[in-house]
Amino acid sequence: MSKMPTVKDVAEYAGVSVGTVSRVLSGEAAVKPLLRERVNDAISALGYRPNVTARALRTSRTDVIGLVVPDITNPFFAQLAASVERAALECGHSLMLASSHNDSEAEQSHVSAFLDRSVRGIIVVASSDGSGLDLPASVPVISLDRRFGTFPLVSTNHAQAATLIADHLYGLGHRRIAYIAGPTDTEAGRMRKEAFVSRMDGFGKTGEPVELEIAYGRFDYESGERIARELLSYPPQDRPTAIAAASDQQAIGALRAARDLKIDVPRKLSVTGFDDISLANLVVPRLTTIRQPADMLARRAVSLLLEEPPGKGDEMVDGSLIVRGSSGPCPQPGASGRK
Amino acid sequence: MSKMPTVKDVAEYAGVSVGTVSRVLSGEAAVKPLLRERVNDAISALGYRPNVTARALRTSRTDVIGLVVPDITNPFFAQLAASVERAALECGHSLMLASSHNDSEAEQSHVSAFLDRSVRGIIVVASSDGSGLDLPASVPVISLDRRFGTFPLVSTNHAQAATLIADHLYGLGHRRIAYIAGPTDTEAGRMRKEAFVSRMDGFGKTGEPVELEIAYGRFDYESGERIARELLSYPPQDRPTAIAAASDQQAIGALRAARDLKIDVPRKLSVTGFDDISLANLVVPRLTTIRQPADMLARRAVSLLLEEPPGKGDEMVDGSLIVRGSSGPCPQPGASGRK
DNA sequence: CTGAAAGCGCTTACAG
DNA sequence: CTGAAAGCGCTTACAG
């Protein structure tokens, strides 16, 4: 292939200086219509495309937004990534996506790599409450969904959302409840759990007492399945009547465990999730969960990043309760055994 | 933040020329140990990091591999992306990921964007058999899983794998089978279907006849659910005893439909998928499917891309049959209705 | 409004 | 083995 044409070629072809070419390219500075037209003709005649690397070197700016997620294989993050890409595109920016495999070292090095490429800004969905960044960030950084270092956070209001689930289950009459929590080294995991627990404690004080058992795991299918299997191995009268999980994946794993143990959901056991991944509406039974407004979160994160000066304050977006088939009234004691 | 140090600063600090700094950076050229050490000291003292943009401009090369997938929200592509990232990292390269939302224009523009950034090479999982690229590609391009333009393809041997499924179902005694195909504008969709059909035709000629119905959809959950619902609405004696789907997502949708219609899988109906996404092992019943060796595919694609000269020939990797609970012997006629 | 020129931070022939 | 210098393709003060 022949070498790509440069501003110089365009300038020669159009009979102007490279400065003029650059000026019509930027669209900013005023250029006489005649010259502008000659330049544009030259550009299309030559099939010229600006060299973004040179431009970046000169201006130390690009239109790339870097996004790092803990694990692209997690459906919620995949959806979030798709939303961020759409939001970036809407603002005329493109997205570079990196997955850190839940490894905070990899996370660090991805962020550094973005910095090295002088991206316009970086959005990070932290893999854990790491120390954040030890490099000086020369571009804006926004935490999304989970806090990264001390950078501003855009996230669902985890506490409000967890409260919605607590109210739902308590309202259905459940008084022996298990909570499958997310990793304690993630803010999302902690906040969801604490809000859920404190709401239940509140009910316990003002109304009927609630037995609450808490188990900790990762956010994935396997954790949910393993933990639920354990919780459900108790004799029926000691077994929870509802399991609230900190993620849809955990909840789907719990559904799987219940199924294996032939425990009818929702008649004998209610299960709830968190995220509303697309699968939540497809499992059997369909999962009651919290919808996180991914599009909104993405748009807010991109906006904060691109604002001048970049946004400094945290932003919370409310989640909403989606009631489906996996949650129902607490089974009456003694009404079991109808096989 | 103060300006980042440059080779010039390092050179001054170490009392050498910038050329020497560059040479120790590259590690290639021989530099006297004494100077090398002084330069390295200067680098760490100053916290110097090479400017990759400048380097890219000068050499018109980077260590970035661009990957574009049709939809990052599809679990199979997410897994493939994770595998490609790992493979790239192993070779000292980093990954830029873009999702085309199944839009071939977006796909084109992502590829162009990569080209503009002078990436080391591009791997594309085509969203459809587009015209491929109309720009001159100045770097190697590899098609992964689905052919992009005329670029070399690394993929599972779709035909061999589809044959495995056909043999499995025929071997279980199924003679009235429905096939949920993928989009006909994807090579993967066509090849899987054709191999399945031709294998069944072969059985029909040498053994017992097979009734085969084919329905076309996208690769997603919804298509599978919708199509299966239709297929299963026939009266029991006309209904297929097995549904083979071109993707796990379709198969999981079909499972959902069967469940809604109270058709017992696998006793009344066998369902098979293709891909072996992590969910396949979690649905109820667990899904019989074809495992695509994502890690291997990813590694081969990266290798071909990085070879000098870049690989030119297609590569096929065999898939393997994973038998789980969703497939079983063909139900005996008349043995129904045991409610 | 336009051109000539400097410079972004590197790498790499070219001399020595 | 090392230094001085050119140049990658842009953008942007600086003159005019």
UniProtKB/TrEMBL annotation, chains A, B:
Domain HTH lacI-type: 5-59
GO MF annotation: an example: DNA binding
Protein name (record): LacI family DNA-binding transcriptional regulator
Keywords linked to the UniProt accession: DNA-binding, Repressor, Transcription, Transcription regulation
Organism whose genome encodes this protein: Rhizobium bangladeshense
Residue span of region Disordered: 315-339
